[in-house]
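[job 0417] fold request received: Signal peptidase complex subunit 2
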Amino acid sequence: MASSGAAKNPKKANLVDHYSIKHLLDESVTEVVKSQGYAEDVRLSNVRLLIGSIIIAIALLAQFYPKKFPENRDFLVTCIGLYPFTLLFNGLLQFISYTKEKNAFLFTYPPPGSFNSTGLIVSSKLPRFSDMYTLTIASADPKSISANKPVVLTKSVTKWFTKDGLLVEGLFWKDVERLMDDYNGDRKNK
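[job 0417] inference complete; emitting structure tokens
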């Protein structure tokens, strides 16, 4: 299965930019998880986009309303009245980010045809000035009866990249697939 995402186009990261490294690894993890039958759950992203769009729409209306000041007084008062709601919406975005997303970059549905009723939350960390990448796979609903214990992989990114910054996808995919097997193995042992 490792060959399905590897060797098409070599993936390269800037080795002095840890954001570039983390982004490339996270995208590769997403490919591995999807290749194992998990579909991405984008509902939370869609809610965040909707809230952001409402905030932007209010700002655009206030900025580009076609009438000039004395004539648009009532509209401006309405926009000023809506301003606290934009602050509330921004606070809601921060709350979602802090409580639900944390370090997660992928939310999934359960694989079709599985007996599992919960998807996955996949998160990662790559601290600044560190080469240790931590990948965590956990249940999207930890209180569910079909939820497994989270599994964690921590490894130096130097194991997966050449000195030129090319990702050795075969090695990385094997490590991620092994972690997926560990997560799914707990389910079989229950």
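[job 0417] notes: The beta strands are 104-107, 120-125, 132-139, 151-156. Residues 1-7, 186-190 have pLDDT under 50 and may be disordered.
[job 0417] exit 0
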